Amino acid sequence: MKENKMQSKENILTCTEEVRVRFNETDPLGIVWHGHYIVYFEDGREAFGRQHGLTYLDIQNAGFVTPIVKSTCEHFLPLKYGETFKIVTTFINSVSAKLIYRYEIFNQGNQLVCSGETIQVFLDSNGSLCLYNPEFFQNWKDKMGLS
After folding, report:
1. I need a labelling partner for 119 at 20 to 30 A (CA). Which of 70, 74, 77, 95 fits?
2. Is 137 helix (H, G, I), strand (E, B) or coil?
3. H helix intervals, 1-147
4. Cα atoms in the 13 Å half-sphere on the side-chain side of 117
């Protein structure tokens, strides 16, 4: 993955979430269907938000939404029904008004299964793109030492 040239080298915030593959997430071969990895990334973002105080409800209560404008996912190994795996979600600090998350999914043997990234932007209550960090988000970054 390319490094974000606007990335700050300050504090690194991560979250690790353990998940079990459910039957409905597998295809006829018994492996996780590729589209579910994006859902797993969502699980990682939700866990990150709960752990670090930046949930979708916090964003919504501040009057903003954060649609995904880019997502990438590279697959290396399959996951199978019943396996547990961990999602490591890392917030990538940027001076731009956006949320960048990187993900690594590891199987029970701690092997890298897939990696990816999502980028979300801020839209205000009128649906307008925010060019600067919303005040609540800048306050969160300050609190986390990411200014």
Report:
1. 77
2. helix
3. 36-52, 56-61, 135-143
4. 13
d(CA 95, CA 53): 19
Tokens of 24: 């409905």
Which amino acid appears at position 90 of this protein?
A: T
Query: Is residue 1 scored above 60 in pLDDT?
Result: no
Name the nearest CA neighbour of 118 among 7, 52, 48, 42. Answer: 42
CB of 46 within 8 A of CB of 56?
yes
Q: What confidence score (pLDDT) does residue 11 get?
A: 78
Residue 10 confidence (pLDDT): 55
Of 75, 102, 76, 98, whose CA–CA distance to 87 is shortest? 102
Answer yes or no: is pLDDT of 7 > 60. no
**Which residues, other chains included, contact 126 with Cβ-Cβ below 8 Å and sequence gap of 6+?**
none
Residue 70 and residue 120: Cα distance in Å, rounded?
Answer: 7
| Mean pLDDT of all residues in 70-81 | 97
Token couple for 112: 């890298």
Task: Give the chain's largest Cα–Cα span.
Answer: 48
Two tokens, residue 95: 């001076």
The residue whose two tokens read 């396996």 is: 83
Question: pLDDT tens for residues 112-139?
Answer: 999 999 999 999 999 999 999 999 999 9
